[in-house]
Write a structure and sequence with these properties.
Chain lengths: ~220, ~220, ~220
Amino acid sequence: MNISKIFQIFVPVDKKFFPLFEASAENLVQTAQKFRQLLLTTDSFDRMSVIRQVKELENRGDEFTHTIFNELSSTFITPFDREDIHALTSSLDDVVDYINGAAQRIEIFKPKEFSPEFIKMSDLLVEAATEIEIAVKELRNLKNPQKIIESCIKINSIENRADDVYHYKLKSLFETENDAIELIKRKEIIETLEKAIDKAEDVSDVLRTIIIKVA
Amino acid sequence: MNISKIFQIFVPVDKKFFPLFEASAENLVQTAQKFRQLLLTTDSFDRMSVIRQVKELENRGDEFTHTIFNELSSTFITPFDREDIHALTSSLDDVVDYINGAAQRIEIFKPKEFSPEFIKMSDLLVEAATEIEIAVKELRNLKNPQKIIESCIKINSIENRADDVYHYKLKSLFETENDAIELIKRKEIIETLEKAIDKAEDVSDVLRTIIIKVA
Amino acid sequence: MNISKIFQIFVPVDKKFFPLFEASAENLVQTAQKFRQLLLTTDSFDRMSVIRQVKELENRGDEFTHTIFNELSSTFITPFDREDIHALTSSLDDVVDYINGAAQRIEIFKPKEFSPEFIKMSDLLVEAATEIEIAVKELRNLKNPQKIIESCIKINSIENRADDVYHYKLKSLFETENDAIELIKRKEIIETLEKAIDKAEDVSDVLRTIIIKVA
């Protein structure tokens, strides 16, 4: 249906995008893991160091994003639609941005410790990032999208579980926290984590769009 | 201009998507109506039952979403661009998700009663859902998109009115509520409703994109 | 790769969209400038007048949006993909909507004065709007997209700086404001400004998509 498919029979597709997507997805996994480490770090000096590392991973992610955008401007035949390469790159960037946003809020609000729901959210974030990395590696093999579909289904289920954790935490926050400003601080952090997982689902939506087009 | 149009002259377009879109839109209308019923239910036992019904409608919506995604993977000729089928399905799902999110917050915060602005927001939500259902039923008749355009214009106007109600409620909340935590609870519910209506406008944007392509 | 490009060799492209995009971008610049003026206005009567002018600019923006949507329905050959015209128009509209949202919150919360971070955010908003206007004017000259790319890079950098200002303000708000309700009010205004700049980045993403397709 897509005229680019006809062209792609004759013209070799540029393969340089795949390593860049994979590097960006791997960077996302590292950011999510570093964030989980942050939640387990109680010493305030160690925390500052871990928060700085999350920020550095975000900067590294920005570099991958810019490199991919530059390649897009100079490459004629792409492995899939140009706008989907753009959307995939932006959505990977967004997840990392929100994880960094949550780390920044921890720096600002300096909570002494984290309840199990925060740890659970960071576990789900690592799981989602890992599924994204699996799916992104399968993009080289678009004619057999079964594994990508499986990862997307898992990411959707992770997002549903994160929603439940978020609602549960919201409930317990309002039941136990009587200091409004403390409540707002906790709510800010858990909300930013929930948005990070929403953005992971956006990555999954872009991946679905890509495989839907070649189906 | 679109090569898929040329193909569609010769190949019969698969018609199985329309009943699924319609079922999803009808499920959205039912969710909005059930939510309005929730706001009029004061007995706490009855409320729990209505909130559970909203949750069940959301689960039912998820099933339509998954069925449509599966059909997309196995169907060659679709009635309009595959990515737009995906976007329409996701955006319908989002509205239902936010209505359920508002119901969950009512379960968490247990407000004793609802001011007229909450009722008004739920009325606007039912109106928007009803226009979405009308427009989705007209997708079978894409060559004559006038009714879809009319529904989209109405949804835009509903969103503008919801914005005014939201700003008015925000104003009165801050004028009358001196307990910060109570204020946050009310603000959370009305904000989630406002986002649900924003998402209804996103459905309208997808519908516009679909008819714009075939114009 | 894009069949519309082949068609466009033979069929004259309709030029009436460019003045409309430019009018919408110019209206955005004026809205951002008017908002900056609002932050410098302390007299409450003058403020009401400036807030009303922001609202009028938003209404004017809505009219450009509707005119472009109507043109899209009646025009066969467009200067770039119909869905991108739609996305560009919607995203310009969104920025103006959020600026108006911030003005509405100032009307509701009536802060006596604005800290330097608010002024800084409004400066960044004017900068972003100005880059958008520059880029939109270059859309007439799509074969030479270098200036558009430069504006998009600048908008990305403005968004990063706005993020830093936002985090800094969040930090200082929680350090200095002990009244939870006052804190929520300030947070609401700065958050809405931050979202307006996020939406400016969405415009930049649409512009990138447009030039990526013709690359």
